[in-house]
Design brief:
The structure is a single chain. With about 325 residues, the chain is of the alpha+beta class. It is about 25% helix and about 30% strand. The strands form three sheets. Strands 1, 4, 5, 6, 7, 8, 12, 13 and 14 form a nine-stranded mixed β-sheet that branches. The chain has a three-stranded mixed β-sheet with strand order 2-10-9. A two-stranded parallel ribbon has the order 3-11. Strand 5 and strand 6 form a beta hairpin. It starts with a helix and ends with a strand. Belongs to the serpin family. Ov-serpin subfamily. It comes from Crotalus adamanteus. This is Serpin domain-containing protein.
């Protein structure tokens, strides 16, 4: 299990880095663990060089670890198939994601389409008091800002000050401490791009290790935000070296079908998250933390500029989500 988790985490960081190189000035949010399950399912049917390319990213995968489904559909009846896929996605995300496959995005020449959608719902271990939420500036650049709803709370959190790249790291645990959000806040004169340049799974482990992070009393200022992002993943995966499975006459998926023309024509991923006082989605309020009047003397962790964030399961240490907030939505 440990080797599988590490392989998935390395892939997650490589993908995050590759995506950020393409989208440096845009919001990012995706679930690497979620779409790995779809790729792993294809890997089981891949043969020859197609399998070798995929195995560079996925090793020691076992089908029992992924709750994915493979189904034959009729790409001649395009609209009916599109609705069927969207209906499945909507049911899997409790109605949060309704239209993953847009009209005219698939056609009669489509051979295989991978669809993957996920939304995240969780409550903070220490929730923010809505009464402390206030309007504040979020700086998208040194010259431009926009107004956001800024949440606030004071408490003891795991925190690190990193010199290279210059940034602060904060752990915000979710209810019961099973999951945590790690926020990477560049210094005022730094950028998220500087963090991305050094980003790797090894660095992530170093930055969030117990030797780096220590408990500290902080006033946390974090904007409320909602992100819903959709990606066509094939271009990024090709850039990472996974080419044959997406290329006609090169893909060898003979473990799935005897048809030599079978190829993954489309791979779409959609993820959404809402961060508010209670967590990542509205729920019954418990353990609300109020900001004390003496908070002025406590150091601030002020998320008033772009950040990177990663949501991780703490046992096993698996990266579930990764993203960047570039501006408020």
């Amino acid at each position: 299990m440990d080797s599988l988790v590490e392989a998935n985490n390395r892939f997650a960081m490589d993908f995050f880095k590759s995506m950020e190189e393409e989208r440096s000035n845009r919001i990012t949010f995706f679930s690497p663990f979620s779409f790995v399950e779809a790729l792993a399912m294809v890997l089981f049917g891949a043969r020859g060089n197609t399998a070798l390319e995929m195995e560079k990213q996925f090793t020691e995968c076992t089908k029992e670890l992924y709750h994915a489904e493979l189904e034959r559909v009729d790409f001649v009846n395009v609209e009916e198939t599109r609705k069927k896929i969207n209906s499945w996605v909507e049911s899997q995300t409790n109605g949060k994601i309704k239209e993953l496959v847009a009209p005219h995005s698939i056609g009669k020449n489509t051979a295989m389409i991978l669809v993957n959608a996920i939304y995240f719902k969780g409550k903070w271990k220490c929730q923010f008091n809505p009464k402390e939420t206030h309007e504040a500036d979020f700086w998208t650049s040194k010259e431009q800002s926009k107004k956001v709803q800024m949440m606030a709370q004071t408490g003891r959190f795991n925190y690190a000050k990193i010199r290279n790249p210059p940034m602060e790291v904060l752990e915000l645990p979710y209810d019961k401490g099973i999951l945590s959000m790690y926020i990477f806040l560049p210094d005022k004169n730094g950028t998220t791009q500087e963090i991305v340049k050094q980003l790797s799974y090894k660095k992530f482990q170093e930055w969030t290790s117990s030797t780096c992070m220590q408990g500290k009393m902080l006033m946390i200022l974090l904007p409320k935000f909602k992100v819903e992002e959709e990606y066509a993943l094939i271009p990024t995966l090709k850039k990472m070296g996974m080419k044959d499975v997406f290329t006609a006459h090169k893909a060898d998926l003979s473990g799935i079908s005897e048809s030599p023309e079978l190829v993954v024509s489309e791979f779409r991923h959609k993820a959404c998250i809402e961060v508010n006082e209670e967590g990542t989605e509205a729920a019954a309020a418990t353990d609300v933390v109020t900001v004390p009047t003496s908070a002025q003397t406590i150091p601030k962790f002020n998320v008033n500029r772009p950040i990177l964030f990663i949501i991780k399961h703490n046992s096993p240490e698996c990266i579930l989500f990764a993203g960047k907030i570039f501006h408020h939505k």
